[in-house]
Each structure stands twice: as C-alpha cells, then as structure tokens.
Amino acid sequence: MNASNSIKIFSFSGNTRILHLSWIAFFITFVIWFNHAPLLAAMRETMGLTDQQIKTLLILNVALTIPARIIIGMLVDSFGPKRIYSFLLMVSALLCFGFALAKDFEQLALMRFLLGFSGAGFVIGIRMISEWYPARQAGIAQGIYGGWGNIGSAGAAISLPTIALLFGGDDGWRYAIASTGILAFVYSFIYYFSTHDTPKGSTYFKPKKSGALEISSKKDFILYLIMNLPMYAALGVLAWKLGPANIGMLDAGVTNIIYAVLTGIYAFQAFRMYQVNAHVFKTEVPEIERYQFSQVAILNLSYMVTFGSELAIISMLPLYFMDTFQLSPAQAGLVASVFAGLNLIMRPAGGWFSDKYGRKRTLVVIMFGLIIGYGLMSQINASWSLAMAIVVTIFCSLFVNAGNGAVFAVVPLIKRRLTGQIAGMTGAYGNVGGVTFLTVLSFVSAEIFFLVIAGAAAFVFLASVVFLKEPSDKMTEVLPDGTVQVIET
Q: How many CB atoms lie within 10 A of CB 55?
C-alpha cells in the first residue's frame, strides 16, 4: 500500500485503481437507484399515472434500502466486496430491464421497490476501501468514494432525459432506463475481473458467525436491540404513508399485516442476535476480541443527522425556496441543488479533516456547526434577502456534507472483520433519518422542521463529546488458527 499520506488521485494503479473502480461502481448503483426521477413526467404521460401513484413510486424507492444495507453488509463481510458488488450490479441490471418493460403501475411499483436494493451498493465500497487504504488515508479515500459516487443521482438527472429524447416516442423513457441496466451489466464483469478484495499478501477477515453483528458484552447486546428498533419503525412509517390514512395504496388490512410482519421480523432478528451472541451471557469476551458497540451507535445517530437530514432537505428545499422567495421552479431547483452538490467536495474534505485532526474532534466540531447551521435556517423568512438565505444554506450544507465524510472516516476503524455490517447499519440509519425528518415535516412548519434537526444534532454533539472515543492506532484480529494479527491504523 502507498506509504504516503497523500492519495495519487490521477494514478490508475495500486490502491488508487481500486478507489476509482469502486466509486464508479457506486456511481452506477446511484444512477440506477434514481434513474426514474428525471423521467417521471414522461412515465406519467405514457402510462397515465396519477400524482398519488407517482408519490408511491418515490416512497417505494427508499423502502427496501433500509434492510438491504444491513443484508448487503453481512454478505460483503462473508463473501468479499469484489463478488458482492459484481452481483449487485448484475441483479440491478436485470431489475432495470424489468422496470423498463413494465406494462402497468403494479409492475412498475414492484420493480421500483426491488430496485431499492441498488441503494445498498454504497456499503460494499466502504469495506473495499478499508482493505486497501491505511487509516491515515481512510478518511479522504472514503470521502472520495462516497462523494464522487453520490453524484450518480445528478448524473441520472442530467443524462437520462437526453437519452430518452434521442430514442424519442412514448417509449423513450424505457430505453433510457434500459441503458442504465446495460451499463450496470457490463460493469459487473469489469469490476469482477479488475479488482481484488485485499492487496496481495493481506488477509481478508470474516465474521466468526453470520446472521447478526457480533458484540462484546451484555450491555452492548441491549444497546444493539435498541438500535435495531428505529430501522423497523421507519419501515412501519413508510407502510403508514402508503396506508388508508395517507396515500391509500394499501388498505387497512394489508397495512396491519405489514405491521405484524415487521414485528415478527424484529422478533426473529432479536433471536438471531441472541444466537450469535449467546456466549456473552456465559463467559467474558477476551479483551483482544472486544469493541464497544456504543461507538457504532454514535456513528449511526451521526449519519442519521448528517445524511438523513440531507435526504430530507433536498426533498423539500426547492418548494421551500419557491414559496418563501417567489422563485420559479427552475430558479428554486438551481438554488437548492447547491445543498447536495457540495457533497462532491465536502465529503472528501470531512474525511481529510478526520485524517489530519482526529476523528472525534472533527465529528464534534461538525455537529456543533450543524446546530448553528440548522438554527440559522430556521430563521429564514420572506423578509430575508435571497442572497443571505443562500449563504446560510451553503454554510449549513458545508457541515452536513463534511459530516457524511467524517462519519465514514471512523466506521472502518471499529472492527475490521465487521466493517461491512457496521457500514450497513450506519448507512441504513441515513435512510432512517430521511424518513424520520420528512415525517416530522408533514406535521410541522419548515421553521420547526429545521429546529428539530438542530435539536437532533445537539443530542449527537453531546453524545459524541461524552462517549465517542478516538480510534486506537492498532486493531487486532484473530485468525481461524488462533494466530493474532495486529493491523496498523
């Protein structure tokens, strides 16, 4: 691995080659995850979709991503990122073809729900990058991977309407969707034959047991149970939105069945968690095998506040600026695009600050900045100048996007063999945050909405100050033969 503290970003060899191949894979999964968004108008016209059906597709697109990130995290730890990324790209391609060939709304809805799995691609690269980069470079490398891959949604918005127009006719949108499937299908082979799970001579550490995250103590087991609840609650909220009280796609009976199924799945997951970790109730885990799950919990909540609030903000900000400053849709969209657009620069910057100034210090400062940023946004009203509102929005966005990078600068340094599962849980909490904050917005004004996010950031700020620990400069893993390997971080 590169011994320098800098990343040779214009190189295409060694670990930089893996970085480029991985962020491109992430970019493609995000193109697929959001390939419907810029084509909704054409789909509505050719298939006669109602506004309610359009909203349903948007909700279904994020529903499966929450459990998918957990599942993909387990798979990548067990089978390696090379295989799982290639597999996910191929499956996503086939689902794209299914979406493009859909004949009615029900088929569209089913394919869109399943395509939520593509949103889990992010988790895979976190483990891949952690294998190829030392901790002194992990923050900036993870930031580049996440920041550059994230613009896949923008890539879809820019390119797919043009592709649809080139094909023309009522089926132009179908060809555009199918083209993203072809891209993913081809790249699945490129990624498989061009990457390796680890550098030559390195060991790929796998979990000792599958089905749940390994934890180190009885206290951690209880916290693990608690931290799983919001993920199921978020799915329950999505079911409620689709139910008779809101969109009405599902009747009361089906909605109640979904609630019951979610309760049953949580109970089964709790049982699996106990099966995997029953030993902590009988014997003490050796010191060399331990890690503190409280660190995972803080990272989960941090990503819920950073990426979760970003998902919510980019969903509501265009309309908010239109209504507050009487802008046209195009003007409001341009202003609001700054919030997510800064992710390209600030996510790597957040990782770089973590590498240079310390993980805990960086995350604490960013959370404090979020409190101020969202507090200022709560004060925006029609009496402000548009320029000042934009400045405040940019100020807040700097901390939100840097926070995304800072969180995942810490994730790979908790426990190497569990990195995929930890990344999956933390990533899922980003989606939980999006659902949570958008649900809050449906009940309160925008001003209160911003203050709620500021309050959540304040809670995470205090938790980080009190409980977050600076990762050690060494990690240890025990090989199957009992050999202890020290990993320099």
A: 15
